[in-house]
Every structure is written in C-alpha cells, then in structure tokens.
Fold this sequence. Notes:
Strand content: 15-25%
Strand order of the largest sheet: 1-2-4-5-6-7-8-9
Order of helices and strands: EHEEHHEHHEHEHEHEHEH
CATH architecture: Alpha-Beta Barrel
Number of strands: 9
Shape: globular
CATH superfamily: Phosphatidylinositol (PI) phosphodiesterase
CATH topology: TIM Barrel
Number of domains: 1
Amino acid sequence: xxxxxxxxxxxxxxxxxxxxxxxxxxxxxxxxxxxxxxxxxxxxxxxxxxxxxxxxxxxxxxxxxxxxxxxxxxxxxxxxxxxxxxxxxxxxxxxxxxxxxxxxxxxxxxxxxxxxxxxxxxxxxxxxxxxxxxxxxxxxxxxxxxxxxxxxxxxxxxxxxxxxxxxxxxxxxxxxxxxxxxxxxxxxxxxxxxxxxxxxxxxxxxxxxxxxxxxxxxxxxxxxxxxxxxxxxxxxxxxxxxxxxxxxxxxxxxxxxxxxxxxxxx
Length: 266
C-alpha cells in the first residue's frame, strides 16, 4: 500500500464544470478549463454494450429527457441524446460523451481526472473491470513511465467497494480512493483491502478528529462537494488534501494557496 502525501490537485471541478455547465459533458470539461481548472471529477457508467460513458443517473429524466436507462441503451444511442438542454438553451444538443472521448480531451489539455466509477445496480463488478481495463489501455504510456503517485495517472473513486475491487484486479497500477458519505468504523480495513491511496468523503459528515485519524494512518483525504470558501478553508486547516466544488466561479483552482495563507495567519 502506498502511503504518501497527496500528489494530486487540491481543488477539482465537480462533474467537469460545476454549476456553470451541463454535468458530465465535454462542454463541462471545456468550461472548467476556461476557468483555470486542470483537475476534474466525473462519473462513468456502462452502456448496454459495455461502453463506459459519462453519466451520473442510471435512469433518464434529469440530464437527458425521456424514459429509459443507461444500462439498457447502447453507447451510440446515448451519444444521440441531448444532455445539455436541461441546463440551458446554449447547450442544446450537447451529447452524452464516452469516457474515451473525455479522457482524450483531458490528456490533450493536461487535465487530471478523478474518475468516479458509478455502476448501475447489478453492474458493479463489470463497471469496475471494464472502466479500469480501458483506463489501463488509454494510459499505457504513463503507466510505463510514471509511479502510482504521479498525477499523470487518473484516480479511481467509487461508493461501490465491489467496483473498486474489480478495478484493482483489472488495472492495479491505477490508484484508488474509497468514496463514502459517512466514514464507517471499518474504513481502515476497507482501504487496506483496496490497496487504496485515499479516502473520499462528504465534508458535511467530517470532523477534525476523523480527518486527523485518516491522515495519521497515512492516507490522502478528499471531500465532496464544497461550495463555501469559509468551509473550504476550515477543512483544509484540518489536513484535508483536496475537494471538488460546483462553485468554480467562487472557489478558483488556486484557492488552496490563499487558504494556506489564511491558516498560517491564525
């Protein structure tokens, strides 16, 4: 197991463009980049034909209209759906992108990726395995030359322990972060089993004491989704290594530098 300081960016654009663009689209990635973010988080789910695509919700109705679901729809059909109109007319016709398309964009723009493996119910193992295998293929050159702690590689995260275990088996070189809403009593055992490098958790359920326990054990600590600068400064003072935000207009990519000055002055 790797025990190291967090080598990744501290401030990450949630689902690509936060609150400023339709989530999990290439438009969102471009929006985050335009705001200076070279670090993004997004969700990956499998289509009916086992193609990893960017989508948070298994069922249609929120970011894509109509009746249906991701695991019962082919990747080609998903690419033809409108994933932008729900957000605003300016994004009408924005398609559901494949993971491969987004990974290519991020690599070309030197954008680090927190890839949340978001399996549909019953597809936990398959989603972890397929996403990891594709990532291993896409990042073969980086794997050959970079260490596990390098930000040249993406970081997997997931609420699904089974998906992360499958990802570990398929691509052990890609680092993993275990994602939880509330930190469970067996968090350390779970991280050991996953050979994880970090624990990812809801900042609303985090305390200074828990943060110190995770850091004392030698793990990275990442939080979601922090939209208030005062709260961001507070958790960074606890030792939190990084967080994602929807308010990329309010909390910039270099926010942690300013927060460090505030903390040092206290």
